[in-house]
Input
Amino acid sequence: MTDLRILTLNGNSIFGEIPDGLYNLKKLSALRLDDTLMREAPWLAVRNEGINGSISTLIGGLQDLEHLYLNNNPISGTIPTELGLCKKLKTLRVHRTYIEGEMPDNICPLRDKNLSSVYSDCGPYNGTAVPFIKCSCCTDCCDHSTGVCIADD
Output
């Protein structure tokens, strides 16, 4: 299993934290753990369904990672700066989660390389409050409460 390049578990009604062993898959180029909420309104992530916990700093060891989809899950915490070590990253989808804070400074320069798609909850929460994530390089900013994403590029 150490040669696994693509792991797609999206669209399933699964729950729990991202196992640390997943970060040992050094050849992983695509990780899809998105859309694990199976309800009538999957864009409204709740904390007792789907993939939860946080993104480990161990993610920086996935040097071949090109596509990371974690959207539509109750993942929380912040985006670790170690994600910026994934220099081949092309797609980052962390919208409709409970991730908060700022997009790390070392991720935005990846937009000048391969990173062409960055979705996060950088839109105003329900049009009234502060966004979940402050992001100056997102291609699409989403409103966590409505699920509406608007291109920012």
The chain has a mean pLDDT of 86. The radius of gyration is 14 Å. DSSP finds no helices and 13 strands in the chain. Residues 29 and 64 are 5 Å apart (CA to CA).
